[in-house]
Amino acid sequence: KDRAMISSIKQNIFFVLANAHFIDYLVYGWIFIAFIFILFLGIFFALKSWWQIGFLFIMADLFALLTGFYYANDALSQNLRPVEISAVNAKQLTYSNALIIDFNVTNRSKKMLNVCKIDLGFYTVSKQKSRDFLNSLNPFAKKTIVLREPFIPGEVKQIKDFVNEFSFIDYNITKKAECF
């Protein structure tokens, strides 16, 4: 399970780097430059016999690097390339362990998009909000759909697909789209 999660993170990073534009690289570059600056500041404090402060700077810097990349990517996607996913209609097939999913994707940006990756996560429902949130972070099934065709502004694409080996009854669906 850990290998699958690491593989998924690696695939997401490669997808973003393969399809990123100049503005994406500019934002990621600024985050990396800030990381290097704060790292040197932490090392400076550590060498000047304030090792506790230096250690805190370095740990906060590592945390800031990861959260900075995550929120920068999220902000770029929401502001430059917004895409809306409708509610996902799901129907369990009666005589097989498969699920039919049907939903619409709308390009809300002002530019044409060339590639979109849509991630759907299926997780168990819980009555506790905190447990439901934790379940959404660790879905029991995932489906990734990649659209490699031009997607003009305002266009709506209908997606129909199957999720194989799926025989669950009570579940929720998370959805995320990343387009370039």
Structure notes:
The protein has helices at 2-19, 22-47, 51-80, 129-137, and strands spanning 83-85, 89-92, 98-107, 116-124, 141-147, 156-164, 171-179. The protein is α+β, with helices and mostly antiparallel strands. A hairpin with a 5-residue loop joins strand 2 (89-92) and strand 3. The radius of gyration is 20 Å and the shape is globular.
Structural class: alpha+beta
Total number of beta strands: 7
- Provide a count of the helices: 4
* Mean pLDDT rating: 92
Shape: globular
Briefly summarize what is shown.
It is built from four helices and seven strands.
Can you give keywords for this protein?
single chain, 180 residues, alpha+beta, three-stranded antiparallel beta sheet, 4 helices, 7 strands, globular
Give the SSE layout.
Blueprint: H1 2-19, H2 22-47, H3 51-80, E1 83-85, E2 89-92, E3 98-107, E4 116-124, H4 129-137, E5 141-147, E6 156-164, E7 171-179
Antiparallel strand pairs: 1-3, 2-3, 3-6, 4-5, 4-7
